[in-house]
Structures are given as structure tokens and as C-alpha cells.
Amino acid sequence: MRPRRRPLTENVGDRQAVLRGIETRFWDDFRYRSLTTSWPVFVLGAAIAFLALNALFALAYFLGPEPVSNVPQGSFLHDLYFSIETIATVGYGDMHPQTHYGHVVASLEMFVGLFYAAVLTGLIFARFARPRARVLFADKIAIGTHDGEPALMLRMANERRNAISNASAKLWMIRAADADGAHFRAITELSLLRRESPVFRLSWTIFHRIDETSPMHGLSSQDLTKLSAAFVVIVDGFDESSAQMIRARREYGSTELRFGERYVDILETTDDGLTLDYGKFHDTEPQAS
Questions:
Q1: Residue 182's pLDDT band (boundaries 50, 70, 90)?
Q2: Residues 6+ apart with CB under 8 A from 258
Q3: Least crowded by CB within 10 Å, which of 35, 189, 247, 270?
């Protein structure tokens, strides 16, 4: 009887979807897992692989007829030390292969060590070189009025405070729908009043006007909950510091909407200039009707 595997899950807005019928094996997507895992897990995995390789070759030395000089007979620990020195191409000189068997094993270990060092160096470089956006999204989406008309508002900020030029934003609404007796998820892009910003340096609020042409027209908070509505926002632009294109994404569920509210103003003009209070960044307040 085959053991039951833990089902795969994926968060969709504020709901969790269970994925069945998908086989996932670690080695099938080794590079992706190496790039997306946390640094502690990555370093631990590299250390385990390093020790495993050295232990394997140390066992080969240990089983051979005195293949390494100046190693006490039957000392696996000394064979392990020699293996580490060989795979790291250190070679202190006090221990060295003295038989054909030892030279063959050492040559094979150096060949494997070249691949290990190349793969590890490539993965570390890829992790550091991968562009990462530091865009802070508000915890909630506010739905109130803007310029006297109903509007959806979403605030974000550039946490690095550097210049992201030619920034653009897109917003989609995902909702449950039925057609011909089939259930599916309908994806609709929401038009924005200003979807581009020449320079995204501090904060930026995007607006979707809820008029007769909007997919949200006439929908209340209860309606969006029944439809299992979710919202996805994507921001991309050119990071002038790293000279790379960056992208940030955030998903919101229907429970993260705040009807009849607006964001608390974080901008204040003083005698010293412009002040932005990011301590109020996620705060909303009721909007006067």
C-alpha cells in the first residue's frame, strides 16, 4: 500500500486551494528550489552535501590498501580530513596519495569537487544577482470616494527609497463565475486612473473608479465575499540602482477590503519640508459620506 502524500496547497487570495494529481520531486526542479529556499536552509543543504561527498570519498580511502601516506591504519577521521583537503584543493603536503588506487580516487574526487564548486558558486551568484523589489503594499484595500466618485484605492511605497523609473501598475479582480453549468474563476483587469509613474521613489496610491463600466459596480462587501473575490496587483519598473527590471506582486482577499474608508494621510508639509509618516502607512479611517 502506497503511503499517502501530504496534499499540495496554494493560497488564492484569502482562500486555500488543494492541488491533487501533481507529482513533485525534489530533483525535478533543483535550481528553483535552491533559489527560493531561505538562506539558512540553503547553507545547511550545501554543508550537508559537502560533508556527504567527503564522507563518501573518505570511505573509499578507508577501504583501500593504505592509499594515503601519513594516515594511521584504520583511521577514518584522517581519511576524512584528507578528503576535505583534496576536494577543496588545499593540499597541505603532509598527506598525499601513495598508491595507484589512492591517485585514482583523489583524481575522481577533484573532478567531482570542480562540479560541486561550480554549481555552488553559480547558485550563490544567482541568489545574489536576482533582482528583488522592496515594495511595501498596504495591508488593506480601501473603497471610498475619490474626486466625489466611488473608487477603489490601494497604497504602496518604495521601501528602498531609490528611484524606480517608468513604474507601472496593474490590478485584476478574480471572482467565481458560472457558465454552461461549469464553475471557473473569472479574471478581469481593473482600469486605473493613473497606472504609470515616471519615478516611483516614495509612496504611490492607485485608483480604480467604480462606475457603470466597472466589474465592481453594484457589488457590496457581502457580494464580493460570496463570489470569493480576490485582487492581484503587480508593480514593475526599472531600478536605477541595480540597472535591472524589478517586479512586485501582492494578493488580497475579500476580507481585506475596507468599504467606506480611506487611507490615513501620511504626508505632512512642515517648515523643514515634506514629512512622510510610514507608521500610519497601513491605517485607514472612515470616510465622510
A1: confident
A2: 140, 141, 142, 143, 284
A3: 270
CA dist., res. 268 & res. 278, Å (int): 11
Cα–Cα distance for residue pair 171/192, rounded to 1 Å = 8
CATH of domain 135-286: 2.60.40.1400
Give the residue extent of every domain in the chain.
8-129, 135-286
Torsions phi, psi of 40, nearest 5? -60, -45
The correct answer on CATH 1.10.760.10 for the domain covering 8-129 is no
pLDDT tens readout for residues 149-179: 999 999 999 998 789 999 999 999 999 887 7
Query: Structure pTM?
Result: 0.76
- 199 alpha-carbon distance from chain centroid: 24
| Rounded CA separation 267/263 (Å) | 11
Which H or E run contains 9?
strand 8-12
